[in-house]
Amino acid sequence: MKKSIFLFLLLLLPFLLFAGDIAAFVNLGFSNDARFFMFAQYGINSKDYPYAEIYTVDVRQNKFTQDGVKKAEFKVPVETTQDGSGALYSIMKEISPLSMKYDINHLKTGRILYILLNGEEPKQKLQFRDFNLGNQYSIELNQSVFSSKTETSSAFHITMAIEKQNAQKKTYTVGLPDFKRKDVKSYKIRQIIIGPDEKSLIFIVEKEELAQAGNNIRYMVETVFLQ
Length: 227
Description:
By secondary structure, the chain is mainly β. It has one domain (about 1-225). The chain is about 15% helix and about 50% strand. It is globular and about 60 Å long. The chain starts with a helix and ends with a strand.
């Protein structure tokens, strides 16, 4: 019995040390023409309130649509077994007109080219092949942290080279190298998704944010149109 309790505490230790709010990421799909991408994140914040956020991205422009950010916090008590997903289900009803406006098809979630599994050590450099298209990808995550006595901020961008079957090679810079995000400690590439039309890539980037109750985990996306 004592051994079982000890093993349980060992498994729980990383979560106790983190002690922050860890959001869950949800791929909500592409539009039928693959021009727009919708995603969500949800969880329970430091005030013990469930929250959810839904974003709609213009894939070719690599920016949110004008009406594409929806956030909600629900000031209701939660049980220890709840994960905040109820907040997401609640605002999904409200964004139904938005989904229709951008023709989002929740069944079209693209094809995953890369995924960082939980517990796996994140890599700054990635190399892999898309066997469907025959493309070879070389990707590097570049990040810089700026700290002072009063605040911390960080910036990142992704450099990518794609070599096709015909040996043609193209390079891309994804993101804004000089844009500093306040209170962000670090970044990880969590997923790389190719769009349903195979003309764009979606980078799911995990942000570790500084907070009073412990570091929080949030998600953002960077998109690149493969011209």
